[in-house]
Design goal:
By secondary structure, this protein is mostly helical. Helices cover about 45% and strands about 5% of the residues. A hairpin with an 8-residue loop joins strand 6 (about 270-275) and strand 7.
Length: about 400
C-alpha cells in the first residue's frame, strides 16, 4: 500500500522563482503523474518547496566518461585505495556476497567493483536533490521525455513506499543509491535483498548488492566466465577490426597474431569475442566477451566498463596493465591528487580543502604553477608532470 508522503527533509537549493518552471510543473508534470496513479495531493506534497536550479542543464554534455582522458579516468577509479577498500568490503560482506553470487551467478569481485566505482562503497552517492534536478531536466533542455520518465519513476517509488524521503539526493542525472541506479532501472530491477519488504538501495547494502547482481544477470551475465583480459597485438594489426560489437571467434584473432599480454598463447575457442582499443592502436588492447557487454550496459561508456572490469581483476589479486597508456603525462590516483593539492596550498593557492577532487580552483592553481615553471601546455590538468615538478620545486623556507 502506498504510504503518505512525508515532509521534505533536506533544504531545497535557493533560487529565484521561475514562472516557466512552475507552469511546466503544474501544467505538464502534475497531470502526467496523476495519469500514472499518483494522487495530485501527493504530487503537490512531494514537490512542495522545490526551487528550480537550471545549472544542472550545463551538465548534459559534460559526463566524465566521455570528456576525461581514459588514463585520468581510470587513475582515480582503479587506484590502490579503492582496491584496498574493496578487499575489505569483500571480507566484511563475505556471507552476503556468497549468497548473492549463488543466487544470481555474478562473482563477488564484480559486484563489489560496481559498488566501488559507482559510489566509493557508499561514501559518495551524489548531493543533488533528485526531484529538483529531474524536474528541471524534464522541463528544459534536450532529452526532456527521458528525464520525465525518470522523475515519474521517483514519484512512484516514493508513493509505493520503496523510498521514504522526497529530499533524496543523487547524481545530476538522477542516479542514486549505493550502486547508482536510475529511477526507472530501480523500478524494474531492484530486489529486496534483506527481506524487509522494501527495495531500499539507499539504506540497505543487501538490497543494493543483490539488485546490482540482478541487473548484470538480466543483462546477459554468464556465470563462471571472465569479462575479458589484456592482450598483445601483432605489428600492423588492422585497428578497424576493433570495437566492442565487432565479434569474431577467438580462433580468428589468434590467426591474426593476437596473444596474451605477455606474449603467451591464448587457448583456441569458437567463443565470440571482440578487441577493444580504448586509447587507439598504441595503448592497451583487450579481448572482451559477453560479460564485458553486461558491465557496459550498466553505463554505456568504454571507460566506465573498463574501470569496473579492471577493478574486479585487482580485487581478485591481479596486477596492473602490461601496456602503458599512450601519454607522457599519466593520470593521478586520489592519493596523488591530494598530494598535489597539498603542494598547491603550500604555495599559497586558495583551493579549499585537500579532498582529491580536482575542481575549478585547483585547475586554476595548476595552470598558474605550470606557467611559473614554464610547463607547456599550461592547461590546468592534474597529471604526473605537474606533480613531479612541484615535488622538485620545494617552496622556500619561511
Amino acid at each position: 500500500m502506498a504510504q503518505q508522503p512525508p515532509a521534505v527533509t533536506s533544504a531545497p537549493a535557493q533560487a529565484t522563482d521561475d514562472p516557466e518552471y512552475r507552469r511546466c510543473v503544474t501544467g505538464r508534470l502534475r497531470p502526467q503523474a496523476v495519469a500514472r496513479g499518483i494522487p495530485g495531493e501527493a504530487f503537490d506534497r512531494y514537490m512542495a518547496g522545490i526551487a528550480p536550479d537550471r545549472s544542472v542543464l550545463a551538465l548534459l554534455d559534460a559526463q566524465p566518461e566521455f570528456t576525461t582522458p581514459i588514463w585520468d579516468y581510470l587513475a582515480g577509479l582503479v587506484d590502490d585505495e579503492r582496491v584496498a577498500d574493496g578487499r575489505a568490503m569483500l571480507e566484511t560482506h563475505r556471507e552476503l556476497l556468497a549468497k548473492v553470487s549463488a543466487q544470481y551467478g555474478v562473482d563477488p569481485e564484480t559486484i563489489v567493483a560496481v559498488w566501488g566505482v559507482e559510489s566509493d562503497y557508499g561514501r559518495v552517492s551524489g548531493k543533488r536533490p533528485l526531484l529538483q534536478s529531474l524536474s528541471v531536466l524534464s522541463c528544459f533542455g534536450r532529452r526532456q521525455e527521458f528525464f520525465r520518465g525518470e522523475l515519474l519513476a521517483v514519484l512512484e517509488l516514493l508513493h509505493r513506499g520503496d523510498l521514504r524521503d522526497p529530499g533524496i539526493t543523487g547524481s545530476w542525472a538522477g542516479a542514486f543509491g549505493h550502486t547508482q541506479f536510475m529511477p526507472t532501472t530501480y523500478a524494474r530491477i531492484a530486489v529486496d535483498g534483506d527481506g524487509d519488504g522494501r527495495r531500499d538501495l539507499v539504506g540497505s547494502i543487501p538490497d543494493a548488492l543483490a539488485s546490482t547482481a540482478n541487473y548484470l544477470k538480466r543483462s546477459g551475465w554468464q556465470p563462471g566466465r571472465p569479462w575479458g583480459h589484456e592482450v598483445k597485438l601483432p605489428a600492423g594489426f588492422d585497428a578497424s577490426l576493433a570495437g566492442r560489437t565487432n565479434r569474431r571467434p577467438i580462433t580468428d584473432w589468434l590467426a591474426r597474431g593476437v596473444t596474451g599480454a605477455d606474449g603467451s598463447a591464448i587457448a583456441p575457442s569458437d567463443a565470440r569475442s571482440a578487441i577493444v582499443l580504448p586509447a587507439g592502436r598504441d595503448g592497451p588492447a583487450f579481448l572482451v566477451f559477453r560479460n564485458y557487454d553486461a558491465i557496459y550496459s550498466y553505463n554505456a561508456a568504454e571507460s566506465y566498463a573498463l574501470a569496473i572490469a579492471l577493478l574486479s581483476d585487482r580485487l581478485r589479486g591481479g596486477g596492473g596493465l602490461a601496456t602503458p597508456w599512450p601519454t607522457d603525462d599519466p593520470g593521478l590516483s586520489r592519493a596523488q591528487r591530494r598530494e598535489l593539492q597539498t603542494l598547491l596550498l603550500a604555495r599559497g593557492h586558495a583551493i579549499g580543502e585537500v579532498d582529491g577532487m580536482i575542481g575549478t580552483r585547483t585547475r586554476r592553481a595548476i595552470q598558474a604553477e605550470q606557467r611559473r615553471l614554464g610547463l607547456s601546455p599550461a592547461d590546468g590538468r592534474a597529471g604526473l608532470r605537474i606533480l613531479e615538478a612541484l615535488r622538485a620545486d620545494a617552496p622556500a623556507a619561511p
